[in-house]
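Interim report, section 4.2 (structural modelling).
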Amino acid sequence: MNRITAGRRHPLARYAVLLLALGLLGGFYTLAAPTSERADAAIASGRADDVAEGRKLFEQSCSSCHGLNAEGTANGPTLVGVGAAAVDFQVSSGRMPLANPGAQAPRKPTAPWVNDDTIRQLGAYIQSLGGGPVAPGPEQVDPAKGDKAKGGELFRANCIQCHNFVGSGGALTQGKYAPPLHDATPTQIYEAMITGPQAMPVFNDSIITPEQKRDMIAYIVGVREEPNPGGAGLGRIGPVTEGLVAWIVGISLLALAAIWITAKKRQAHQ
Amino acid sequence: MSTGTVPKPIAGTSSFLDDRLGAGNFLKRNLRKVFPDHWSFLLGEIALYSFIILLLTGTFLTFFFKPSMGHVVYEGSYEPLKDVTMSEAYASSLHISFDVRGGLLMRQMHHWAALLFVAGMMVHALRVFFTGAYRKPRELNWLIGVGLLTLALLEGLTGYSLPDDLLSGAGLRITEGVAISLPLVGTWITFFLFGGEYPGEDVISRFYSLHILLIPGILLALISAHMVLMWVQKHTQMPGKGRTNTNVVGAPFYPAFMAKAGAYFMFTFGVIALLGTFAQINPIWLFGPYTPADISAGSQPDFYMGFLEGSLRLMPAWEINVLGFTLPLSVLIPALVPMGIIMTGLALYPFIEQWVTGDRSEHHVAERPRNNPHRTSIGMSAITFYGVLWLLGANDEISSFFHVSLNWTTYVGRVLVFVGPLVAYIVTYRICLGLQRADAAVIGHGVESGVIKRLPHGEYIEVHVPPNEAIEAHVRGKTPVPMIAGTDADSDGIPPKGMRGPLGKLRAKMSKAYGGEKIALDDGHGHGDEHGEHAEVGPGKDDKSLTH
Amino acid sequence: MTDTNHDIEQPDGRVPRRVIGTPSPATGTSLLGTDEHHAEGVADVPGVIPQNEQTARKGERVAALCFTVTFLAAVAFVVSYVAFQVGDVETTQVSTLALGGSLTLALLALAAGIVVWVRMVMPKYNLVQERHPMASGPEAREYVAETFLQGAAESGITKRPLLRRTLLLAAAPLGVLPLVLLRDLGPRYSDFPSKLRHTVWGEKTKDGKNRRLVVEGTGAPIRAADFNSPGGILSVVPEGYEHDLNALAKATLILIKFRPEEIKSGTNKNWTHDGIVAYSKICTHVGCPAALYEQTTHHILCPCHQSTFDAADGAKVIFGPAARPLPQLPIAVDNEGYLVATADFAVPPGPSFWERGDAEAEVRENGGHA
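Predicted structure of the assembly:
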């Protein structure tokens, strides 16, 4: 019992659970929609009660901003045509439902009602409204199957200008930002590329192929799990933290050393 | 003072050397050369020892580094870059990092030593500035120091560009963009530097010879000159008991100062090794090879170039075209003006101060910063100016870390770069006067003894006792800031010679403001009411809180 | 207001004296141990205050311990060098930690040992030396001046103008030699400014066709029909120049897909294809690749100095230090449906330079053509 509790806190536990969940989710899709690339087929084979359940969930949690029929309001865009992939990305990363309006929806812990089933149902409902990209299968996002070096070249060409060279994130205009990729699951990375959430542009499958996307995922996951051979990573954001360390650690330690070398010893009063 | 006979091997060697060099005379005069003791006097040694470590680690790196921009396909052991096309320079940097034992450690120590080299120079320069240690006869050494700082920036810039990773290339690109924007000579400079169009295939080998030969050679020569001048002129000392303008009090070079300097070298070396081991710096393998087509978010220069990056970011768009020629002012102004203000200001300060104070005498006792409030305020003002630019050089990281709008950091910075120095000046000036008043109180009223006494009429007071003599001597080391005598107009309203004309009047005015005694030490005697007499510099009632 | 009564006498030893500021050396030296406790071998010299023997012995032991640690750590360094091979990230991590850790320990222990030695074994010093004014005095100066003039006279340089003038003549061109030698740092300057104005987009391919746009990183040509998701962006390079850095430094593009109604008047619609617009990726400020694209606002942000361009409106500058919009590249599709450049940029891409001139104004005067 204790071992399980301790194991739950292990840093890799999150990934393990997520991978398990994704595996299950993906497995469902593979069973339910053997040709998962095709949106139509997904709708066709999506169970009718999923759509109905999804609609209920939508009305409870999403419709206040996105409109009763997902047609969009002043507070939220239309969701017709965004596809189940967008639903999975936004809801599984906790961005939706939105807690506070702001420049950008942050990643946060998911809402209590969110689980694999509800995401699937909600996705089925949105998919039924106007199609759109669907969530990728586990094969498609398996980092082990990608080529890191090729993915790295694409990552540097298309991603790092916003997300930084290892995906530590960066600033955009007017309070918007490119979020760090540290917590994004391979599926979420894939979904973000095909759906273009918020300010992020779209990288559709006809230009950056699914295999190439898997290469990029392999690179992103590989590099973020790679240890820092040179010591603490200092946030992996480049020279800013290095400069801070040089002053705060380096110069301070050396000033202390100088003080020790030159200090007058307290005179002992006998 | 016989302390035994000199052992034979030492006596033999030394007489061999003395027979040939006559070194005995030099050593006779210098072995017991006295060095004053103060922790801040060691700060410059951070830079000196970092430089030595840079030479050592740098030499190691040159054994493996290939300064070539020729394309190769990477076949080394870092897997995520396997089969990627890159320059030979980058491939060899990866080789140093992953295929040479101790290579990564040496690379990281080299980079940390570079940061500490510049940071050490900066803190040293600030110590010299704020204690007035640049005053006559040390102006030349101060100028050498300014030259060293400038060269160090150049040395850092060339070194930063060598590994040819994506980050270093971004720095190179900005350097090129700034250089080409210079009026008239811009295209010539970039053409010759890059051997044609950017990036070409020459710049890394050219930067390499600048970085490992030319600039370090000049640095070494200037550092030697800096040391020799310091040796000849003897170090300044802090005011204190028995210390005057005509003596130097402290420990002898041999053995005490030598040992201390040796220990500090080991500390510097040790701290750099510590950083090189436990803090990863410039992970080039994560950046990927350079291509002018790509860039990472948060691409930054090393810290010492941050202020230039910040000023480029702050500047609003401005470009003018005259007669078919282009003047990109939004590049030129931020790239040249702050650097010009800081470096020229540093270089000229000793001479401007002399002109304002009319002081031509030698100074060997350092001033406490509070005792020259205008200088200290000007220094803090400059630090603030530099600091705002520096901070703004990292505004994207600030924006992303603290979740504030990127654009607002720029707007705020545009205001702060002007308002900040002004506020810093005023605040520092008030603090200096406050500290002077506190000194006057120590002299006049003594220090709190911790003993409470009840007076006959029932009042409780804390007994004040005179400060210990070391402190008193330190405080009494204060001398008034010199000023030009007789700037005032005579009875006919005619100012003295040299004080006429707008420049002369300005000089007289500045001299009066800059020089003189703001808070006299011995005013503090007796009762608090006496403080009213220097109410012109600050409300006398402040003194209550300081003295009681 | 209470006054301080200085007349209250306190026994000196009972009153703690507050220490502020920088203490001066040699305070209370008289309190040190008496002569018989002095360390051996220290002569009785004024300003040299010997340590008492007890402290010195303790210092010796501590310093010796430190030096021993240095020895052991240095041995550990050598052992680590032999024991830990490198070759990938994990082994490099271990090797760096072992080598660096032992080196750090060795150096810091040595430093600490020496400090202990200085502070606990060596005497305290309060030596005083006189300073003398730096100036060498009138006599010496006079002598130098006289000797200088005498030497000049002896050499004949003052009296013999022919000698002097020809020497100057000889020196002048010699000083120029190094500068002349630097000329070949670059091959031909004459066509350099015009090179800055052109990119490979203006050149046809070998078989005389318009040059295709290809995806950076894969080199695949782009079918306009495939680049069909509004809000899409792509980093694009010229076909045949995928690894030519000189070409890429001017010719790299960002390709953006708009819904046709989003494109505003600043963008030249004749140069677009089906809502696809191509802009130079090279920032007009100092040349960083500007490619942080926000599909919601159509802002392109340069990460270096945060110049912001409105991609929907001809990439005009809306924030930051860049003064000119990102140049737009005229594109179309070839008969296979792939995107191609129909001409070079109308204005020079990248950072401004002296000879550039107001190319944008010329283009406007010529009705949109260079």
